[in-house]
Design brief:
The chain is mainly β and about 120 residues long. Helix content is about 0%, strand content about 50%. It contains no helices and 11 strands.
């Protein structure tokens, strides 16, 4: 079992920044990848980005490219989602996810563990 705990959400004005953290605990921490998803009210859960653990390569959905970055701290088993130039459309609950083995990064079903989510609200 892997437990994921997100933090860092909150209310921010458009154009502002937030950094979300995801702390992992549990079994020997060796994911294939860690991902971030988000879900806005009335919408389906949406892939945001991911980092492949062995290579630290990242990939993002088009709507956040150039604004969001993902990084990690191996010593702390923590992954971060840095969100800059936030827009009201970024308002959602953000979820941290853990992928044990290679899969379709964009599919929620490819991820084995999920955090509880953290609310991000971007105001005008």
């Amino acid at each position: 079992q892997v437990q994921l705990v997100e933090s860092g959400g909150g209310l921010v004005q458009a154009g502002g920044s937030l950094r979300l953290s995801c702390a992992a605990s549990g079994r020997t921490f060796s994911p294939y990848a860690m991902g971030w998803f988000r879900q806005a009210p009335g919408k389906e859960r949406e892939f945001v980005g991911r980092i492949t653990w062995s290579s630290s390569r990242t990939y993002f959905t088009d709507s956040v490219k150039g604004r969001f970055t993902i990084s990690r701290d191996n010593a702390k088993n923590t992954v971060y989602l840095q969100m800059n130039s936030l827009k009201p459309d970024d308002t959602a609950v953000y979820y941290c996810t853990f992928m044990s083995r290679y899969g379709d990064f964009g599919l929620p079903s490819a991820y084995d563990y999920w955090g509880q989510g953290t609310q991000v609200t971007v105001s005008l």
